[in-house]
Amino acid sequence: MSQQKRWMSDERIKHNFSYHAPSPDKSDTHEILRENGYKLSLLIQEYCPEGREKSLAITKIEEAIMWANAAVARDTENAPK
Question: pTM for the full model?
Fold first, then answer.
């Protein structure tokens, strides 16, 4: 393998692919994120016409909440670099 500088360490990759059990101190944060994603999805459901764009908008909210919850679960500030 080449000796180019990597932006992510092997330890960080291992961390990202490890199981991150929910901790009681973070459960409120996860719930707040999910609840607000749900509320935004309901607004889109109510005000947007049916179609591909509406479906994608809700899918993107699901993705955003998934990644936000992953950030909380992984605790990226304290993860290996």
Answer: 0.76
